[in-house]
């Protein structure tokens, strides 16, 4: 939602349409590299430290090799701002009222990894929603019907349907399912969601885009290991699906079968990671995930959750968390996330974060000669022998 994008210096320029096919030799080299990637990502590393960094650099080198080999297959970037009018028209044609809000670029209100060096030079939070009239606290400002959302259900009804029925990973991990759904729709010119996809950022500030120098800025922080693991997990997923698309007959009709690049996959994963939200299934029996157009352009601030799902109207309703004057940016509260969680999952940090915290694990030492008796006593009192405690830097207790 909002500021999660940045110019990706590593991304090669998009190739012209006539250079969209890899040679047999290039395809073989990509497959060989993907096989190496899967092998490295499948090896467990038991502790943080030099070995973890060594593994990360090995994975990153293989990922960069895949990116370079696939440089002629990338989807050309689009001009988001030029596509905003078509996006708004699409929303209106599907019953979304936008008279209370407008899309605007807001510089200087958000911070990414660069903030650890110089807050003044960071470009800001990018596009967000601006109030076109005064709003009081709890005033409704945006209602989004289910029919314009990309959800796990629309994924099952799409060209991905047959594969979902066969693949346990897609059945168990809705975020991955949404990412592949988004990628498939991006490759379909007549997709219902094309106006929405055309206004999404072309890259992000998530750890999947971090350079080696940016990763080094996190030395000494537990977040560094989280960033290592994120790249490792996504690289493993990519290698798994790349091989699956090459070998499984069910994937023959997928629009991404012959152009499934790591660059596109990390874009789709980052889009879902930074913009997905929980919504109920149509029958209300379960909670699933979805992408909510327009609402996902709201940026973050301190407050409380003010978005709810109305099962009667089958819409997501968003209410102002405080008073907003005409011309001000309308922000929402993403949830009780620390700056570490915001950086890893959203690609930014929030200096005024009331929910910022650090975790400390306290418990009985395994070398304690009385560990059994102490554990028994704590259990009788309803307490865990070991647990995490959080120290907050803001107002929260």
From TrEMBL:
Residues 17-28 have a biased composition (Basic and acidic residues). Its EC number is 2.1.1.85. It catalyses: L-histidyl-[protein] + S-adenosyl-L-methionine = N(tele)-methyl-L-histidyl-[protein] + S-adenosyl-L-homocysteine + H(+). GO terms for molecular function: protein-L-histidine N-tele-methyltransferase activity; protein-lysine N-methyltransferase activity. Keywords: Methyltransferase, S-adenosyl-L-methionine, Transferase. InterPro entries: Rubisco_LSMT_subst-bd_sf (IPR036464), SET_dom (IPR001214), SET_dom_sf (IPR046341), SETD3 (IPR025785), SETD3_SET (IPR044428), SETD3_SETD6_MTase (IPR050600). The keyword Methyltransferase applies. GO terms for biological process: methylation. Pfam families: SET. Belongs to the class V-like SAM-binding methyltransferase superfamily. SETD3 actin-histidine methyltransferase family. This is protein-histidine N-methyltransferase. The lineage of its organism: Eukaryota, Metazoa, Spiralia, Lophotrochozoa, Mollusca.
């Amino acid at each position: 939602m909002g500021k999660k994008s940045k110019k990706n210096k590593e991304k090669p320029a998009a190739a012209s349409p006539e250079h969209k096919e890899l040679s047999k030799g290039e395809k073989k080299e990509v497959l060989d590299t993907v096989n190496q990637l899967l092998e490295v990502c499948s090896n467990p590393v038991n502790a943080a430290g030099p070995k973890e960094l060594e593994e990360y650099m090995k994975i990153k080198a293989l990922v960069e090799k895949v990116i370079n080999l696939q440089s002629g297959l990338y989807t050309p970037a689009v001009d988001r701002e030029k596509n905003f009018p078509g996006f708004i028209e699409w929303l209106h044609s599907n019953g979304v009222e936008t008279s209370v809000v407008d899309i605007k670029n807001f510089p200087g209100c958000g911070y990414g990894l660069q903030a650890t060096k110089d807050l003044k030079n960071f470009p800001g939070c990018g596009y967000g929603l601006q109030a076109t009239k005064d709003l009081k606290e709890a005033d409704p400002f945006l209602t989004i019907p289910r029919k314009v959302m990309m959800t796990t259900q629309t994924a099952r009804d799409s060209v991905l349907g047959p594969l979902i029925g066969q693949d346990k990973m897609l059945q168990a991990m809705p975020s991955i399912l949404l990412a592949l759904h988004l990628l498939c729709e991006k490759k379909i010119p007549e997709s219902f969601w094309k106006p929405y996809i055309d206004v999404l950022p072309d890259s992000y500030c998530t750890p999947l885009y971090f350079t080696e120098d940016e990763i080094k800025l996190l030395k000494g922080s537990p977040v560094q290991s989280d960033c290592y693991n994120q790249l490792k997990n996504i690289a493993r997923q990519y290698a798994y699906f790349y091989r699956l698309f090459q070998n499984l007959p069910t994937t023959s009709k997928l629009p991404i079968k012959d152009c499934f690049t790591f660059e596109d996959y990390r874009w789709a994963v980052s889009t879902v990671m930074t913009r997905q939200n929980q919504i109920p299934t149509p029958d209300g029996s379960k909670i699933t995930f979805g992408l909510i157009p327009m609402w996902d352009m709201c940026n973050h601030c301190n407050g409380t959750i003010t978005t709810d799902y109305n099962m009667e109207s089958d819409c997501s309703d968003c209410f102002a968390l405080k008073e907003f004057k005409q011309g001000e940016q309308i922000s929402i509260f993403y949830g009780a996330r620390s700056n570490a969680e915001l950086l890893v999952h959203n690609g930014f940090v929030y200096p005024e974060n009331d929910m910022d915290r650090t975790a400390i694990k306290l418990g009985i030492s395994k070398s304690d000669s009385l560990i059994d008796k102490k554990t028994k006593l704590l259990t009788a009192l309803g307490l865990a022998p070991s647990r995490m405690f959080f120290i907050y830097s803001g107002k929260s207790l």
